[in-house]
Write a structure and sequence with these properties.
Layout lengths: L1 H16 L9 H41 L4 H25 L4 H5 L19 H7 L5 E6 L5 E7 L14 E5 L18 H7 L3 E4 L19 H4 L3 H20 L5 E6 L1 H12 L3 H4 E7 L12 H4 L6 H8 L9 H10 L6 H5 L2 H6 L11 H5 L8 H12 L10 H9 L16 E5 L8 H10 L3 E6 L9 H4 L3 H30 L1
Parallel strand pairs: 3-4, 3-5, 5-6, 6-7, 7-8
Antiparallel strand pairs: 1-2, 2-4
Helix pairs in contact: 1-2, 8-9
Length: 507
């Protein structure tokens, strides 16, 4: 077939070359040859396509089907829908079998324990701080509603002979399932707490009620529902004010505190400032890492739970009535089916924080995994997770806990829970986000940014794979986030002073 095509093509070239000099050659013959050549080419192409399709339909598909393989493209296209169907079937199966199906699908015993012969794995936050050569303090606070919190402190850098605490003050608040350890596990020159201390800040590390360091109450036992009956709302209304007030009592009422929060640590800041507006004047500025308020564009598996968030009793039965257990059956199922398992990732995907937030393989320091898993998850209430699931379901609303129409009337005097009035926030706030964040989607952060009265900065990490957890433990977190944060902390002095002068002139 190719030889025939070449011969015809050569003939046409010869004919076209002699067209001008040999007028006697019949023109209709040239046209005929051209048409036939075109038909031959089309015929060859069509046969080629048919042969290729025949191979795909009758050979390739049978081979891949026999071997149990699938094309990558179809995997990517169907993965999300198949995962949702599996989760729905899993929940329905759990209901019919009275939840006994959990352990058969996702056994509680881990097959891939992650350990290392390193004493730091067993160390607490104060011990880790001391281990790295910094001065460490622990302070105990009782909230207005009786929860006993332990907060940690690095009053000055390790390289100074002056042991007086620095005047510049910063408060770091962890996210859901986190603790004060989040800010120190990566060590000097990497962990934000140490970087801030070396930069001349008196560093305070919060611990919210229910986590490893704040699991106590003046009258409630920790294994009761009444102890765990709280969400991030109560943390914002009781824990955070108590911590801020304690720092001011310790350092003087004129101290200006810089607030840095991650994930839920940003949620409680927005809830506090919009409801107890006096703290807008107490704090110096706010810096929100992976800010979470609006949650319409969440990619985390928590979005699957949002469909059931109007049935609080059912979700409590699924996730645990009190504490959100680190190895809860639903999380074990999600870890089994939602994670791409390979090598060390088995341990990561057994951990509820990574399952909900994701992880970045290129930026994750694998050698720190045993230490991180020794501190995460640190504990949280199931009700807090349900509250976040409600935020996803109630598209476009940043609101208090939804108890249903009857419960809302009893709690709030209205059929819907009140939204947090973000327009009342006057504190200068910088938002630092990432495009690959499963929980703080770009569109949601943009929506939050335009609702802030006094935004300092809208910074997007210049690395496309940076995700929610990377703000804490990424290899390049200092270069991609923390140095920018230090710059904003310095610039915030000028911004805050200008705002203060402006407000005084108006008043």
């Amino acid at each position: 077939m190719k030889l025939l095509a070449v011969a015809l093509f050569t003939l046409i070239v010869v004919i076209r070359t002699n067209e001008c000099s040999q007028n006697w050659f019949p023109q209709n013959l040239v046209t005929t040859i051209r048409k036939e050549t075109s038909l031959i080419k089309d015929y060859v192409k069509e046969k080629g396509r048919n042969i290729k399709q025949f191979y795909i339909d009758n050979v390739q598909k049978k081979i891949t089907s026999y071997l149990g393989l699938q094309r990558r493209e179809s995997e990517d296209a169907d993965k999300s829908s198949r995962f949702k169907r599996k989760f729905k079937d899993y929940i329905e199966d759990a209901q019919t079998k009275d939840y006994m199906v959990f352990d058969s699908i996702a056994p509680e015993v881990h097959k891939y324990p992650c350990s290392r012969d390193d004493p730091t794995i067993e160390m607490t936050t104060p011990q880790l701080i001391a281990f790295y050569g910094y001065h460490s303090e622990s302070h105990t606070i009782v909230t207005e509603d009786g929860y006993i919190l332990t907060i940690h402190r690095i009053p000055h850098t390790r390289n100074t002979t002056d042991l007086r605490p620095y005047r510049k003050t910063v408060l770091l608040h962890h996210g859901l399932l986190g603790s004060s350890a989040d800010w120190v596990v990566t060590g000097p020159n990497k962990a934000l707490a140490f970087i801030l201390s070396d930069a001349g800040y008196d560093v305070w590390l919060a611990n919210a009620r229910g986590n490893t360091y704040s699991k106590a109450h003046v009258s409630k036992k920790t294994d009761t529902y009444s102890f765990w009956n709280f969400t991030f709302h109560e943390i914002s209304q009781y824990d955070l004010p108590a911590i801020i007030d304690y720092i001011m009592e310790n350092k003087g009422w004129d101290v200006k505190i810089n607030y840095i929060g991650h994930s839920m640590g940003t949620t409680v800041l927005f809830a506090l400032l919009s409801t107890k507006t006096q703290y807008n004047k107490v704090l110096r500025a706010g810096y929100a890492l992976a800010p979470v308020a609006y949650m319409s564009h969440v990619r985390s598996p928590i979005r699957l739970l949002s469909k059931f968030s109007d049935n609080i009793a059912y979700l409590m039965k699924l996730l645990g009535a009190n504490e959100f257990l680190p190895h809860n059956a639903v999380l074990r199922w999600l870890s089994k089916h939602a994670c791409e398992i390979n090598h060390y990732e088995e341990a990561i995907c057994e951990n509820s924080m990574f399952v909900l937030c994701g992880h970045d393989d290129k930026q994750f320091n694998k050698t720190l995994l045993p230490l991180i898993l020794g501190h995460v998850p640190a504990g949280a209430s199931t009700k807090t997770l349900i509250h976040y699931a409600q935020e996803i379901r109630n598209d476009g609303r940043f609101q208090q806990f939804d108890y249903g129409p009857e419960g809302n009337f009893m709690m709030y005097g209205a059929p819907l829970p009140p939204e947090y009035p973000l327009f009342k926030i006057t504190l200068p706030i910088a938002l630092l986000s990432a495009d690959n964040d499963w929980l703080a989607g770009t569109e949601d952060v943009d929506k939050l940014y335009v609702r802030l009265k006094n935004p300092l900065e809208r910074y997007v990490v210049p690395y496309k794979d940076f995700n929610h957890i990377d703000f804490l433990w990424a290899i390049d977190a200092p270069k991609l986030v923390y140095y920018k944060l230090l710059q904003l902390l310095d610039d915030g002095v000028v911004t805050s002073n200008i705002d203060l002068i402006t407000n005084n002139e108006i008043n």
